Amino acid sequence: MKKFKQKIQWLKMIAVPCLLLLVLSSSCSKDKDNNPEGGNSYPKEVNVEYRLTSVSGITSGDVIYHNATGGNTLLDKVALPYSVKFKRTVNFTDNLAISINALGSGEVKAEILVDDKVVATQNYSGTSVVTGTAVYIFK
Length: 139
Hints:
This protein is α+β, with helices and mostly antiparallel strands.
């Protein structure tokens, strides 16, 4: 019974960020009329980098991120620090997201860089589970 409860807890820990990632990956209409400023021309190609670093305690975790095709990449038990770079063509309101789920006590820092500039930074901490998602939306 204890193992079953642990599996349910682990499933909840993964399901919530995954659902959040799925919701955030669906964007609204991509008509050019949605770009009120008109100054940014879309679609455009950008260099993307995701970084995860352990601030304290956490040495590895499960990672989900939006990849070069706009799909999701899932990685199990990734050692920290972790970084991945790729090129991606994006449209207005497309988003980038990276999520970490780690068992243990500590803190993890997530960063999203676009064309070598940090556009999103988040820190996540916990006493038994560390989980969180950093998101950037193109405007």
